Amino acid sequence: MLAVTRSVRHAARRLLRAPVFAAASILTLTFGIGAATGVFSLVDGVLLRPLPYAAPDRLVDLSHTLALSGVARVDQSDATYLYYRRESHVFTDIAAYQAAAVNLASPSGDAASAERVAAARVSAGLFRVLGVAPSRGRAFLESEDGPGAAPVALIGERLWKRKYGGDPGIVGRRLEIDGVSREVIGIVPASFRFPAAGTELWLPVGIDPARTESAIFDYRAVARLRPGVTAAAAAAELQRLLPRVPEAFAGRLTAAAIAQIKMRAVVRPLRDVVVGDVGPALWVVLGSVGFVLLAACANVANLFLVRAEGRRRELAVRRALGAGRGRIVAEFLSEGLVLAAAGGALGVAAAAAGVRVLRSLEAGISIPRLDEIGVDGVALGVAAGLTLLAALLVSALPALRSARLAVSAALNEASRSATAGRRQTRAQHVLIVAQVALALVLLAGAGLMARSFARLRAVQPGFDAAHALTFRIALPDAAYPVPDDAARLLVRALDEIAALPGVQAAGAVTKLPLADEARRDTAVFIEGQPPATGIPNVHQVAYASPGYFRALGIPLVAGRAFERPDPGHARLEVIVSRALADRYWRGDAVGKRVRLMPQGPWLTIVGVAGNVRGTALDQPPDETVYLPLVSAGAAAAGDAPGDPRWAPHDAAFVVRGAGDATRLAARIAAVVRGLDPAVPVYGVRPMTEVVAGAAARTSFTLLLLGIASAVALALGAVGIYGVISYVVSLRAREIAVRLALGARPAHVRRMVARQAVAVGAVGIALGLVAALATTRFMATLLFGVAPTDPATLAGAAALLLAVALAASWLPARRAAATDPARALRAE
């Protein structure tokens, strides 16, 4: 151990005598190790680390699919949840939940300071299923989760500290939540972020077994498998139970319908559902930074080789005086270890800073579990492993070359420039070829993402986001128990906002396009077109005000908009999207009729709206049925279509301004406060931001790949420059002789440039082969471009070739300016 310490100390002293070499090597390794450590922390926190619950491998998500219509996910109805929980024997328990948001009154009682808070409505067993207990107080009792139960709530630790200053007397205190006074019975730890990272309040879901509707699937369910039970076995049992649900709970879902639509139970690990589809992007980014690390190591190894060549005579003398090969090898390895350790330490610091930046961008890049990432012990262990690997990679080749040094030949060399033998530069060329190949793979990946991003941004969403502002308001059921009262407030708000100076149009809708909001799909019955299977198709339903289409710039391609709303009097009319009109009536839909319930009233189509990409930019336009916003208010009395649960208590407003619509935000908030001070205005943002958010994950992946490819490109350019400069220095006598014999400087410049191009061309050729093999893994991340797009690959190759030429320009210019007399005199 003492010998190792002494060797490392001597290596550090030698490196201090070569500060430029040491600084360049450390900085290069910092990029490589830091990027790899930071992205590994991201992948580990999001994809690899178990969920922060007890025995997370036994937690599963319960859902269904509709094989007939291709619907990938259908959640639970109250009936299926209750029946599965009562009859299944493969779970220790099942819990239901719904993501929600609530109005939380100010602690001071000031109605104007009410806050919109992310919440969840959960069944009493949720915390038991997940194996999490409140840090103070207790969880919900079964008696508190049902109709008529005492109103209670659980509050998150972050909200407790932020809004109530960590008051220890919060447990037992009553808070006004959505107009209802609820007793706080416990505080949930800050580490518990279920079902979403921002959830800060938990309320009982309150399912009433006596009033279920088996055909409305608006609950999610999580269950804990019994020991020894697999997800496949659990799915088989639920599939056996599913046809029996209609016998136990009356509703619109029948056993015949279950068979006709080929409804299937699905049991998936909860972690897979939480993570979603972000995995491919993160694995691609991790592979990319792995390439960056390899390129960095190749660059530093090249620097080592150049330095080792400069020490040939010194090493030969030491060998002649009795220094063993092992000692020479140990010196190089210890220097590599010192450089890698310094680069690793700085890389870990850079990775920690990068992770903090990523966590601050959580809301903008749509990556789940981002709050859980960090440079922890696992990441530090990986960084230590990468440091040792880098130390070996950068020093092994120079060490082996020096160990095989021919002492007599090295001592007989008249000078360092006596020969430029191929043996001396072959290793450097191999490393440069590897760097160029890696850079091309990264450039190809970044190019594909850039083209995808450009195609995605070029997609027309179907509306005009410029000069449009959106915000939301939510009216508590307790304060507005009669839907028509809620409708009247919405109508007044729209009228007063539309009258503000600078406002061109104002509207409201229950599902804002491209916003991260749950879809509201329901069966749509078409008059005169009975479904062949007896089961109607499912389409999105949204409630919209008359001004919504003009405010968002959605054109009406046929018919008219809704008439001015009259709360309490439902109009049996709808507007459909062009995609829906084309599907059923070849575009000629005005005057046709649809209905949303088998025995409900027929609704006349009065207009056809332009297509809108409401779910995602890379998805086809939604087939949507728009109902008048206030008609939903009369649904409770059975006078209008729809379901009373969809009464317009929560709506997104869209306001179009003459200029910058964000300047209207303060006046809009004042209008809402004037109508009801207890109703907060939240989610205020320009519609351009909503559209940008729809491409956030693509832009995030593009950013990381772009940085990786830029670093690799820079390393490749530096490597080519260094090697060509070194070769030129070795060939100084040859170049001087050529010039003395009459060679023109332009000929010398071409000779040097050809060597750079030759090395680059070999790397490009190998890189193209590697890119064709690796970019296929990006297929799920791309939009409108093939993984092996010839234009992108050709562009990456051309860029690298140009970089190779640029990197050789200065050495070539220096070589062409050689003074033959001075060079030969020096020889």
Roughly how many Å apart are the termini?
Answer: 46 Å
Alpha-beta content class: alpha+beta
Largest sheet: 11 strands, mixed
Mean pLDDT: 82
Q: How large is the share of residues in beta strands?
A: 15-25%
Tell me what the structure shows:
The chain has 827 residues and is α+β, with helices and mostly antiparallel strands. The protein contains 26 helices and 23 strands. The strands form three sheets. Strands 1, 2, 3, 4, 5, 6, 7, 8, 9, 10 and 11 form an eleven-stranded mixed beta sheet that branches. The radius of gyration is 34 Å and the shape is elongated. The protein starts with a helix and ends with a helix. The model is unreliable at 414-421 and 632-646 (pLDDT under 50).
Strand and helix map with partners:
Layout: H1 2-16, H2 19-48, E1 59-66, E2 71-74, H3 78-87, E3 91-104, E4 115-122, H4 126-130, E5 136-137, E6 152-156, H5 157-164, E7 174-177, E8 180-188, E9 201-204, E10 220-225, H6 231-241, H7 245-248, H8 255-260, E11 263-269, H9 270-275, H10 279-310, H11 312-320, H12 325-360, H13 362-365, H14 377-403, H15 407-412, H16 422-458, E12 468-474, H17 483-498, E13 503-509, E14 521-523, E15 525-526, E16 538-544, H18 548-552, E17 556-559, E18 573-577, H19 578-585, E19 593-595, E20 603-609, E21 624-628, E22 650-657, H20 665-675, E23 681-686, H21 687-694, H22 696-730, H23 732-740, H24 745-774, H25 790-816, H26 820-826
Parallel strand pairs: 4-9, 6-8, 16-21, 18-20
Antiparallel strand pairs: 1-2, 1-10, 1-11, 3-4, 3-10, 5-8, 6-9, 7-8, 12-22, 12-23, 13-22, 14-16, 15-19, 17-20, 18-21, 19-20
Helix pairs in contact: 1-12, 2-10, 2-12, 2-14, 10-14, 10-16, 10-22, 12-14, 16-22, 16-24, 16-25, 17-20, 22-24, 22-25, 23-26, 24-25
